[in-house]
Amino acid sequence: MASVAEQLAANFNVGVFAKATDLKKRIWFTLGALIVYRLGTYIPLPGVNPAVMAELMRRSGGGILGMFNMFSGGALGRMTIFALSIMPYITASIIVQMMTAAVPSLEALRKEGESGRKTLNQYTRYLTVVIALFQSYGISIGLESIRGTMGAAVSDPGWFFRISATIVLVGGTMFLTWLGEQITDRGIGNGSSLIIMSGIIANMPQAVVALLELGRTGALSTVFIIFFLALAVAVIAFIVFIERAQRRIVVQYPKRQVGNRMFGGDSTHMPLKVNTAGVIPPIFASSILLIPATITGFSQGTGNSLLTRIAAMLGQGQPLFLVLYAGMILFFTFFYTAVVFNPEETADNLKKYGGFIPGIRPGSATASYFDHVLTRITVVGALYLVLVCTLPLILISDYGLPFYFGGTSLIIIVSVTMDTVTQIQSHLLAHQYEGLIRKARIKGRGR
Asked: Do the beta carbons of residue 79 and residue 45 sit within 8 Å?
């Protein structure tokens, strides 16, 4: 009997090791995919002079183009094959999610389960191609009009360059879309979010060097640099606090008698996050503002005074940009929260399984209570996003600080890191439970 128990224990240890190896493989696959993405951000777009693009980013990189360059991991400033990054896919996925709340047929697909989810994902890919085609063609036309002190940005403009640049940029976006899905399925964490975060983190050392250089040249005082870094740490702590904050609603289940046994009677809670929308509102607001800003920003050298004025008004830290940015964040916070959390559906599910909120009647009254509570905490979440995303932009605009210390980038880094760590902990917890179950089986067979 002892030899059998020892053999089972050996098999158990092998199984645990295999599970740990599976988690390691997922982590290594994620790191490898992110390395491939970073290598692609240095492959230049054929026919574009990178020196002229670097001059353009130095001249107009302080506006919305600089923000998009941050999201692309510096690929836009170098005008590489990943210049569009994965932002068209992010935009398309958010649009599809929002349309599921407005179009009954899409909502029915969402409720179908796995098959409906695959169909919606396919629609998202089609929409990604359309958005990427629009943006890449606009960028190719804008590149032909750029002139710098070292000449034109495009050495051989014309239809051949426009078509080839459009194909390459769209292909780069679709490759990143596929890569993000592979990370989500075979790696750890959300692939699209990790791609954006890795681009921001990769340029953080350069941003720190630029900040210290401002202090060395005397553009910023040492006291201000220390204050700004302390403020960045405080903002990160504030983001972590708000992202983990939630309103817990007590839910009770009545006792049920099945035969001679009593079931139920439990009391639990339903957590409602203060920031239910997450980092989606600032990213989507940035994507919307990018469309007119891309056209105006790349057309500043054409001599069009109207486009020049629009580009100036949409510059980083300008009142119009701040108002539009804050307004879009507020709108998308409430809109996306309404998409991901349906009070009526949640109340119906509670009623179906016998759950109720103490003091609230099941059904429509419970739905109204959910809507009331969610609206109040969403106000706090929306104001938090506006505060964290806009106030650092004013400091960045006034003192010429790098974009990578902005609130949007910090929210993305903190949120994605917390989500990835949570998934790793879930894998480890699942492995621990499997180990306990196998130990219990071994003890049971040993007896």
From this structure: yes
Contact indicator for 176, 89 with CB cutoff of 8 Å? yes
Closest residue by Cα to residue 250 from 234, 230, 272: 272
pTM check: above 0.90:
no
CA end-to-end distance (rounded Å), the chain: 9
**Ramachandran class of 273: left when φ > 0, alpha when ψ lies in -120 to 50, beta otherwise:** beta
Closest CA to 74 of 228, 201, 249: 201
Q: What is the pLDDT of residue 149?
A: 74
pLDDT attached to residue 443: 60
Identify the bridge partners of residue 258 per DSSP, sorted by sequence position. 261
Distance CA 194, CA 37 (A): 11
Task: Give yes or no for residue 425 having a pLDDT over 50.
Answer: yes
Residue that wins the pLDDT comparison between 266 and 417: 417
Rounded to whole angstroms, how far apart are CA atoms 159 and 345?
52
Return all residues near 12 (Cβ < 8 A) that are at least 6 apart.
435, 438, 439, 442
SS3 148: strand
Cα 305 to Cα 128, 145, 301, 421: the distances in Å are: 33, 15, 10, 50
Strand extents, DSSP E, 253-296: 255-258, 261-264, 267-273
CA 260 to chain centroid: 51
| pLDDT(300) > 80 | no
Question: What does the alpha-carbon distance between residue 281 and residue 44 come to, in Å, rounded to a whole number?
Answer: 31
Whole-angstrom distance, CA of residue 245 vs CA of residue 326? 22
User: Using CA atoms in the order 367, 372, 377, 379, what is the torsion angle rounded to 10 degrees?
Assistant: 130
Q: Which whole number is the average pLDDT over 62-86?
A: 77
Distance between CA atoms of 138 and 289, rounded to whole angstroms?
A: 15
Domains of the chain: 2-446 (1.10.3370.10)
> What is the pLDDT confidence band of residue 5, given thresholds at 50, 70 and 90?
very low
Summarised one tens digit per residue, pLDDT across range 105-139 is 888 887 777 788 888 889 999 999 999 998 888 88
Give the torsion through C-alpha atoms of 51, 56, 59, 65, to 10 deg: -130
Residue 247: how many CB atoms within 10 A of its CB? 15
- Tokens for 174? 């679709």
Tell which residue, 284, 68, 29, has the closest CA to residue 179.
29
Element (H, E) at 402: none
State both tokens at 388: 């964290």
